[in-house]
Amino acid sequence: MYRSALARSLPRGTRPAHRALSPLLSSFTPSPSCSPSSCSTPIPHQQIHQTRWSSHSPMGTPPETPRKKITVPLLRKMHERGEPITMITAHDFPSAHVADAAGMDVILVGDSLAMVGLGMEDTNEVLVEEMLLHCRSVARATKGALTIGDLPMGSYEIAPSQALETAIRFIKEGRMHGVKLEGGKEMVPTIQKITSAGIPVLGHVGLTPQRQNALGGFRVQGRTTADAVKVLEDALAVQEAGCFAVVVEAVPAEVAAIIAKKLSIPSIGIGAGSGCSGQVLVQVDMTGNFPPGRRIPKFVKQYGNVWAESLRAIEAYRDEVKSRQYPAVEHTYPIKEEELEGFVKAVEGR
Ligand SMILES: Nc1nc(=O)c2c([nH]1)NC[C@@H]1CN(c3ccc(C(=O)N[C@@H](CCC(=O)O)C(=O)O)cc3)CN21
Ligand SMILES: CC(C)C(=O)C(=O)O
Predict the structure, then answer these.
(1) Is 249 a catalytic residue?
(2) Pfam families given for it (predicted)?
(3) Is 251 left (phi over 0), alpha (psi -120 to 50) or beta?
(4) Which of 65-69, 77-81, 271-275, 306-310 is predicted with the least confidence, judged by mean pLDDT?
């Protein structure tokens, strides 16, 4: 059952979005004590800062991440140590930038892009070209995390060779480190084909949204003995085929925990309880970057309210433009007195 975001208040422990973002913003600030909003230098300060704050560069170069780059072997080590793997979706440069800065181990360019990024009805509509455009933007922002691109519906099911061709495009054009594809036993030859080319594959079993029309919607999987056995067999099959990890989606927690124990590769849960080796969530869901009343899956925990913060900022901007409070003098460019006088004279009588 979906819960209305309206019906819920901000969860406890939620940090306001501006605080969560401040370490990121400070990396673009010329000096730690000086930003356009805090700088006390009088007018000429624009001359100091204006090029730094130009919007021509894509928010500047992503900050250097001191942490180790996450690789597939490193994920395996984390799994052996029993250290949970953190994974989140990102669909563009800014969302990847903040996820990478927050220390996510894996960034997934999920085909949920279709629904939350492009406003489509379901994930099946999104094209390879569209996924690749977003993959490239995510890759540019990501310095530390492992990046995985989601093969969209129709781009890998026809034959293993088709899947490999698409996967290669995700590596060469999308600049991803690996790919994800949905399915169990039936995908074994496909996974073998892609991994034989040295491309890491993340599996995805349980609720596979690309098959929602066959499943009858976004339905919880593995709720009967037979169905739970099927989810386990699918997970074991994709492991055998060469997946480095597997997403287990919308499965009862007890079932997912048993599956996680039976696997030797990491299991990444979404709506699958805390027994998996890691967790994944869609970023716009967990940051609350959607209007009140939107239906979100039961497993989502909303850690922030980016919508409310953006709304507050844009409404304040609207009000200040309407009342001519913005732009203030510190947001303007100075001109020498004599040049201005000359200009006033030059236009006199025109
Ligand atoms: N924004 C977003 N977040 C997601 O997690 C997500 C997407 N989109 N799009 C693709 C899939 C679809 N997902 C979903 C969506 C809804 C439920 C959901 O609400 N299921 C019902 C159970 C329905 C049933 O079994 O009858 C639930 O109560 O959670 C589950 C997974 C996860 N993925
Ligand atoms: C929810 C995750 C696992 C996904 O597949 C997506 O974002 O498309």
Answers:
(1) yes
(2) Pantoate_transf
(3) beta
(4) 65-69
